[in-house]
Amino acid sequence: MAQTVTSKKMALAKAINESLRRALDADPKVVVMGEDVGKLGGVFRVTDGLQKDFGESRVIDTPLAESGIVGTAIGLALRGYRPVVEIQFDGFVFPAYDQIVTQLAKMHARSLGKVKLPVVVRIPYGGGIGAVEHHSESPESLFAHVAGLKIVSPSNASDAYWMMQQAIQSDDPVIFFEPKRRYWDKSDVDTEAIPGPLHAARVVRAGTDLTLAAYGPMVKLCQEVADAAAEEGRSLEVLDLRSVSPIDFDAIQASVERTRRLVVVHEAPVFFGSGAEIAARITERCFYHLEAPVLRVGGYHAPYPPARLEETYLPDLDRVLDAVDRSLAY
Amino acid sequence: MAQTVTSKKMALAKAINESLRRALDADPKVVVMGEDVGKLGGVFRVTDGLQKDFGESRVIDTPLAESGIVGTAIGLALRGYRPVVEIQFDGFVFPAYDQIVTQLAKMHARSLGKVKLPVVVRIPYGGGIGAVEHHSESPESLFAHVAGLKIVSPSNASDAYWMMQQAIQSDDPVIFFEPKRRYWDKSDVDTEAIPGPLHAARVVRAGTDLTLAAYGPMVKLCQEVADAAAEEGRSLEVLDLRSVSPIDFDAIQASVERTRRLVVVHEAPVFFGSGAEIAARITERCFYHLEAPVLRVGGYHAPYPPARLEETYLPDLDRVLDAVDRSLAY
Amino acid sequence: MTVESTAARTSRRSAGNKAGTTGTKRTTSTAKKAAGARKSTEPALVQLLTPEGKRVKNAEFDPYVAGITAEDLRGLYRDMVLTRRFDAEATSLQRQGELGLWASLLGQEAAQIGSGRALRDDDYVFPTYREHGVAWCRGVDPTNLLGMFRGVNNGGWDPGGNNFHLYTIVIGSQTLHATGYAMGITKDGADSAVIAYFGDGASSQGDVAEAFTFSAVYNAPVVFFCQNNQWAISEPTEKQSRVPLYQRAQGFGFPGVRVDGNDVLASLAVTKWALERARAGEGPTLVEAFTYRMGAHTTSDDPTRYRHDDERAAWEAKDPILRLRRHLESAHHADEGFFAELETESEALGKRVREAVRAMPDPDHFAIFENVYADGHALVDEERAQFAAYQASFADEDGGE
Amino acid sequence: MTVESTAARTSRRSAGNKAGTTGTKRTTSTAKKAAGARKSTEPALVQLLTPEGKRVKNAEFDPYVAGITAEDLRGLYRDMVLTRRFDAEATSLQRQGELGLWASLLGQEAAQIGSGRALRDDDYVFPTYREHGVAWCRGVDPTNLLGMFRGVNNGGWDPGGNNFHLYTIVIGSQTLHATGYAMGITKDGADSAVIAYFGDGASSQGDVAEAFTFSAVYNAPVVFFCQNNQWAISEPTEKQSRVPLYQRAQGFGFPGVRVDGNDVLASLAVTKWALERARAGEGPTLVEAFTYRMGAHTTSDDPTRYRHDDERAAWEAKDPILRLRRHLESAHHADEGFFAELETESEALGKRVREAVRAMPDPDHFAIFENVYADGHALVDEERAQFAAYQASFADEDGGE
Lengths: 330, 330, 401, 401
Ligand SMILES: Cc1ncc(C[n+]2csc(CCOP(=O)(O)OP(=O)(O)O)c2C)c(N)n1
Ligand SMILES: Cc1ncc(C[n+]2csc(CCOP(=O)(O)OP(=O)(O)O)c2C)c(N)n1
Ligand SMILES: [Mg+2]
Ligand SMILES: [Mg+2]
What we know:
The complex is a heterotetramer, with two copies of chain A (330 residues) and two copies of chain C (401 residues). Chain A is of the alpha/beta class and 330 residues long. Chain A is 35% helix and 21% strand. Chain A has a seven-stranded mixed β-sheet, with helices on both faces. Chain A has a five-stranded mixed β-sheet with strand order 9-11-10-13-14, sandwiched between helices. Chain A has a two-stranded antiparallel sheet with strand order 1-8. In chain A, helix 10 links the parallel strand 13 and strand 14 (295-299). Chain C has 14 helices and eight strands. Chain C has helices spanning 6-9, 28-36, 70-95, 109-117, 132-138, 142-150, 159-162, 173-188, 206-217, 264-279, 309-316, 320-330, 336-358, 378-400, and strands at 45-46, 124-126, 194-199, 222-228, 231-232, 235-236, 256-260, 285-290. A six-stranded parallel β-sheet of chain C has the order 1-7-8-4-3-2, sandwiched between helices. Classes of the chains: A alpha/beta (330), C alpha/beta (401). Chains in contact: A-B, A-C, A-D, B-C, B-D, C-D. At the A-B interface, helix 4, helix 6 and helix 10 of A face helix 4, helix 6 and helix 10 of B. One magnesium ion binds at residues 199-201, 229, 231-232 of chain D.
């Protein structure tokens, strides 16, 4: 189908900005809050211009206290608001961890469904931008283990736009992990499209020999891997999981039943990472289909290293290809 | 070998108490701190009598602020102390999560090894005691994903005694998960023994048909399962993992290479739980040995339920046997 | 339940506030002076009723109870007595094994009923786990409070029903929710207020300080009501602060007041003052209600390990209920009939609570999977289905035998 | 590096304190009065040198710089100039791509050198990420500070070497470490003290409040040194507090003082006062150094988006270095030779830093696996071995071709 006129090329960060703008426009109960989200427009400019257009009461610069930000967002949600909270960087979400895990995640169950907390927690995450300590982490596993939270991560501008719309509309708390190294990557966004389900994976490239599953920043890498592998005559399927809680196991299973091999790629450390959960469950579901164990490519069991070592630490073309080779060697 | 005279039967809680006493006695740098650990001796009496004997400067009742407790323990460690911190219940560790994850875990690496933080964080954990919300959780996965921490959990009094000795002697931060429902279980403790390595698993019952792997409170359950299975003519091997970071994969692998089947049992939710990591890695290591996928028995993806539902939520004899049956049916 | 708090029986208004607006005309400057007055190092304790039941004058706070009638006073008395009765019943239900745990409010009735009756219907309450008296004032069915202590739910009443949030066990957390809720009130342009309860122990939590910061910066209409009952389980207040807790507020830029928390009238007056500051756009206030936890921390606790009986005895002389009774009697505001009737009502309440708890059904197994999410979650669905199949396998087995 | 701070060149003692003990005889009551004096709502700013370089009397704090000599003053001046030079070099190295990021201290030299020179060798410093001037006073090799900004390590100097802890990026965290360290000093019976730096923005973090609570309860010898540089990235201080920050301390039971953070003499005096309180067993103190972040938050920041140039211009008139220079000149404490020599030294420092940074090697790949644990960890060993094999496979490939 030809591209409609409603489609525009934009950077991922800009897509989120537009999506927030649309949500603020559509629903007076939506508020954006966080450190430096106002005049500055956030350190990544994701909230650029929003305070100017919607005022200080809708786009709120908060004191520098992450527990306070999430805790007051919960209170605002109890009053009927739909707060979209920005955590400035992945490594600074931990002061808010208690409020997220013991309050935000559990309030709906605790109240037997009487209280809904439609709070979105935006977290720019991941490495590859040459930053200092605490600015490059991928803590999604630390939230996925916690029931009551939904966790998503877009890999491109269009998903960023639409998944943000859906996250804000969700009556559940959503942790929205934004792949900060892809903030400046541009792609088409159709602002009139009808988006698919928020938690459904998508086959971004069909293939027959092996499935690569990834989300957020690693999807692009996996596409590059598939390109490289194609040159060697190997047909890799690339799945963009899009959601880490829930995980679309049906889609992975369907793919693996065809390709019989699976490599999961994420920036987060492998140990207790999402690859572990995917490997365990897919092995259970596809025990007789798998020709090789599910392999995982991710961070090492080490603190995220200083910038000059991050290329070594992060999954890259070679490391993923190596895993592909190892899988195919079974 | 006959039991030596140095061996005494004691409850698991008492064994920790004795171990702390020994450490306080042996090293003036050891301090015990937490909420109500002084006069009261802790809500589980694990620190009973210690303040009386070692004074308020060694056994410290702290303000009610978990981040403060761990944060000041870090400072004390920087000054040369070896703090043993008590978090009153599993669900209350989260206010300290930031200090644990961003400071305690990373200081050694950050300083390129110049700073050591020999801090032990004791957390009574797990359910089965009919408690109210936040008092029955098993958050070990949320720490295992974080490099820089070591995580152990004893299943019996003797291990509790010796693993606490070793945890205090360790120059790394150790999160010491105490199986609170087993606090009152008695077994022999030989206070003159020479303990094995802190992070080594132990075969607590040899078997040939399937391996059950567990730690902390679930070891006893697995032994009961093995008993029950034995009556049906099935020989189950039970592994007490003892350590969740690192995990003794060599021991699991050795066992699975013999039994060809593995079921992992823990109270924590299955999703992103330790079972996932074990399943993923053991499947990779033992791909051609496994006759069945690694199965996991644990909590559901739901907040820990109110007490009257915890028997349904927690792994029990029937649920583990069901998993054993399913595994053997492959 | 047919039991009703006095507020519920009397058309839901603040006690001592006939028109529902008395005192709103109070000038800002007076209020500020009242706050400023608490700066001396010797804590000034606001007291309107002495332990002997004598009404003492207080220029700052008398106006807030100026409209109070004998009927109001009897209502406050009734609420305290019924709350204490309910609390005692819960303690005994715990001993009988009907509850897994109980956190008694014994001794804190005046702080809770006084502050609870200061509220308007459209105000919102964020309690800890011990505010049974406040819940009573809000018209929350007392049986509802027992669900979590029995272990059948983790709260489960509808917070929106009575503007009374669920009990929060993680200490201090709710002060931030209260602040956020209050920020929402400001955004809505409403003139209601929020009250957040917390304990002396909780005052040390970072969350409480952050709540102070946010509420001050956004000038949120919230009253922080700290019941300093002298103990945080086994730790005396000296383990939390070396100065009186009400002074904490000043450094965040809002006033703090210490009130006699065993004096229901003073608790009412000071809370009304603070609430009116909030409504008038003057932002947050910290009220420290100086009171005493007469019982154990919870039924699991053994206070003999860490405190002396003398202390309790000294506080018994300041009992909140006794004190108001003395006042009612000496002022001839209540006759024997009133007390006798209340005694009967009290027993009836106990009986009804007892029966309701015993009749409280265990939750269905499948409740584990309910309400984890509002919009559903594939994994929960999968686990629910697996559990159902697992459960059914027993039925099959049983049927097959 | 051969560069040395003035303290290092002059046998490591506090500036203005010949015997290393001046002022310790100060009575507690005077100290308390000094603290008590800051209670008025108009913030009292302690200033000893006006922006014009005029020395003004201050009865409370003059004694703390009573022994100061012309040489000391020149030393303070030298430290400020060299720190600023170092800072400028780092900024320019960032522009040249040698550093990934730089957090400039421009404008905050007086607060840092003043407080840094107040310390004794056995005192311990917990900095944020901006205390390059304090590091300088402690004798930390400036090149060491650049490692984390270049991206070759996350700190990496030995904190024990100069009693100067690693930079802490998670704001506020280090105030608790400082408090714990200070608690350890008390346990050791030592009379040294701890100083914890943090920013106006960080003052909102719960951790800082908990540090206040712990230090007050345990009466820990710690000075909380808040550099209020008016901005937390794009947020002005009003977003953190509606009252001056130094007032925060009072509610926790210890004194707070606001000092002119662009006045090195006042910063020195007030910090010495606070440190001596700590040594004398009087517990914690909060010092708010009122100063200004002249540059961007970091080299990644663009302050034109949120603040006006006028503001900066106004603060330029209060420049800490200019001010002391005027004083030195008018008091004839320094001649042209001194300034000229310093200029040369300054350029040499810049050159040496530049060369050292450019020569700084990238870390070895295997550094990722080093120091994760002190006692080793099986998984790290496994991953290191796998990585080594993986690396070797490239060598094999290359070799095989
Ligand atoms: C974050 C957290 N830490 C620890 C606990 C365990 N705990 C429950 S109540 C309590 C004491 C609270 O004392 P206080 O705030 O004075 O309230 P009180 O019980 O006296 O009403 C403690 C330590 C908790 N509930 N939450
Ligand atoms: C917990 C945490 N949240 C957010 C950040 C991101 N951040 C880095 S510096 C900064 C501003 C700090 O301002 P202030 O405390 O005033 O110190 P200054 O930078 O002005 O010296 C922020 C928000 C952080 N480092 N840590
Ligand atoms: Mg208390
Ligand atoms: Mg600042």
